[in-house]
Design brief:
The structure is a single chain. By secondary structure, the chain is α/β, with parallel strands linked by helices. It folds into 2 domains: 142 residues, NAD(P)-binding Rossmann-like Domain (Rossmann fold, 3-Layer(aba) Sandwich), CATH 3.40.50; 192 residues, no CATH class. It contains 16 helices and 11 strands. The strands form 2 sheets. The chain has a 7-stranded parallel β-sheet with strand order 4-3-2-1-5-6-7, with helices on both faces. Helix 3 links the parallel strand 3 and strand 4. The protein is globular. The N and C termini lie far apart (50 Å). 49% of the residues are buried.
């Protein structure tokens, strides 16, 4: 039986790559959603013939409706349209890839379907992790992470912990909570484009420089987060909720090659790692096909040509965003939500060239202090 798919956030980087994977695997696309990128949406509609498309912006929705009047695709708009795409498409797998806090409500709606959720937006877990995981458990929804790091952790845990267990709606939390074999989770970070620079050297960094990531092709916001190391901070909060593990058992290390996507250290000293070329299509495909393994679009990793894997400690003086994320993770949900909101606003101000690169963590720290956490 052919699998069916809904993609919330189909015009973003993850959404576009998910459609590549869907075409590769011959997965039927039931529904798509986006904010207002109707030129790309029209292309996607004509190529994949979804039954439903949700466009958040009402004017953009009206224009798209006119453009594709010759198709059988139904267009809805606004918040209700996003929720309808999440809940009513009837797809087997729902990919949640709406960036920022805007992705929280559609993600919750998707979880309430009880279907598999390929989770590609970390902000819902950062802002409301307890609620997200509670909703997953209540509706027996299966969460499979798409972030390369969390997919790697998931794959490592599956290889060691699920000999006779089945993942439930809260992913592997039940396994980890009752397992004494896990010492810590190791999240790897590329270090971004400014690895090795001091705080003083970062003072005059421009958005154009920060958007040039050495390994990954991503959207603007996540690319800036990678440059400040806030992306890794958000990922540690995400991992804390997904895998029911305290932040003091999550270690972040810099790995500039982006080949080892993350690791799990067991109490006997063994470390299980997942390696592959830096290509988001691999974790996307795994989330869609788990527990099956199928040939993918990702280029095969050549270890002989690679020769070297490098690991370093992060510089928390030059990149204080990671330190602030650890602080918020220990303080709890309110602090994590304040951290995320402040970061979204600071990144937007930086992209508009209204503040400098080093002002991003300063604004976030001020917001944390003002939140009373």
């Amino acid at each position: 039986m052919q699998k069916t798919l809904t993609i919330l956030g189909s015009t973003g980087s993850i959404g576009r790559q998910t459609l590549e994977v869907a075409e590769h695997l011959d997965i039927k696309v039931r529904a798509l959603s986006a904010n207002r990128s109707i030129d790309l949406l029209e292309e996607q509609v004509r190529k994949f013939a979804p039954e439903l498309v949700a466009v958040y912006d009402e004017r953009a929705a009206d224009e798209l409706r006119t453009r594709i009047h010759d198709t059988n695709t139904r267009i809805v708009h606004g918040r209700d349209g996003q929720i309808e795409a999440a809940r009513e498409s009837g797809a087997d797998v729902i990919v949640t890839a709406i960036a920022g806090q805007a992705g929280l409500e559609p993600t919750l709606a998707a979880l309430k379907t009880g279907k598999r959720i390929a989770l590609a937006n970390k902000e819902p877990l950062v802002c409301a992790g307890d609620l997200v995981m509670k909703t997953a458990r209540e509706h027996n929804a299966e969460i499979i992470p798409v972030d390369s790091e969390h997919s790697a952790i998931f794959q490592c845990l599956v290889s060691d912990l699920l000999k006779n267990d089945k993942a439930d709606g809260c992913l592997l939390s039940h396994v980890i909570e009752h397992s004494k074999r896990i010492r810590k989770i190791i999240l790897t970070a590329s270090g971004g484009p400014f690895r090795g620079l001091s705080g003083a050297e970062l003072e005059n960094i421009t958005p154009e420089q920060a958007l040039k990531h050495p390994n990954w092709n991503m959207g603007k916001k996540i690319t800036i987060d990678s440059a400040t190391l806030m992306n890794k901070g958000l990922e540690l909060i995400e991992a804390m909720h997904l895998f029911s593990i305290s932040p003091d058992r999550i270690e972040v290390i810099i790995h500039p090659e982006s080949i080892v996507h993350s690791m799990v250290e067991l109490v006997d000293g063994s470390i299980i790692a997942q390696l592959s070329n830096p290509d988001m299509r691999q974790p996307i495909q795994y989330a869609l096909t788990f527990p099956e393994r199928l040939p993918s679009l990702t280029k095969q990793l050549d270890l002989i040509r690679l020769k070297t894997l490098t690991f370093e400690k992060p510089d928390l003086d030059a990149f204080p965003c990671l330190r602030l994320a650890y602080k918020a993770a220990k303080l709890g949900t309110q602090a994590c939500a304040a951290l995320n909101q402040a970061n979204e606003e600071a990144v937007e101000l930086f992209l508009q060239k209204k503040i400098g690169f080093n002002e991003i963590p300063k604004l976030i720290e001020s917001a944390l202090d003002a939140s009373g956490c």
